[in-house]
Design a protein that fits this description.
This protein has about 110 residues and is of the alpha/beta class. The chain has three helices and four strands, in the order βαββαβα. It has a single domain, classed as 3-Layer(aba) Sandwich (Rossmann fold), CATH 3.40.50. The protein has a four-stranded parallel sheet with strand order 1-2-3-4, sandwiched between helices.
């Protein structure tokens, strides 16, 4: 199962991945904070794509980046992108094609 979430939905998608270790294949978070939290099955967490909007006043990249850094420090597989010219809402339409491509990519070599 692949999950995509935007804004608060990004946090919900990641929360589900934490609660269902081994059942989620990949998670993509768009303009939302994710990557943190604790689980007893760290090794079975899915790869995570996090995309921030450089012009996002609601959830600015600095806030997202802090969670990404914490996830990386915990040894989680995270790819982080900042789309400099995107805000909070229109980023979804801008990024969705690359998100779907990423979700179905083979992440086993990471």
């Amino acid at each position: 199962m692949h999950l995509v979430g935007h804004s608060m939905g990004a946090a919900a998608a990641w929360s589900l991945a934490l609660r269902a270790p081994g059942k989620i294949t990949s998670v993509a978070c768009i303009a939302g904070v994710c990557g943190g939290g604790k689980t007893s099955s760290e090794a079975s967490l899915p790869p995570l794509l996090v995309i921030a909007g450089g012009l996002d006043p609601i959830i600015p990249p600095e806030r997202i980046e802090a969670a990404v850094q914490a996830a990386e420090a915990a040894g989680r597989r995270v790819e982080y992108r900042v789309e400099e010219e995107q805000g909070h809402t229109l980023i979804v339409g801008y990024a969705i094609e690359s998100v779907v491509d990423w979700l179905f990519r083979d992440h086993s070599g990471r």
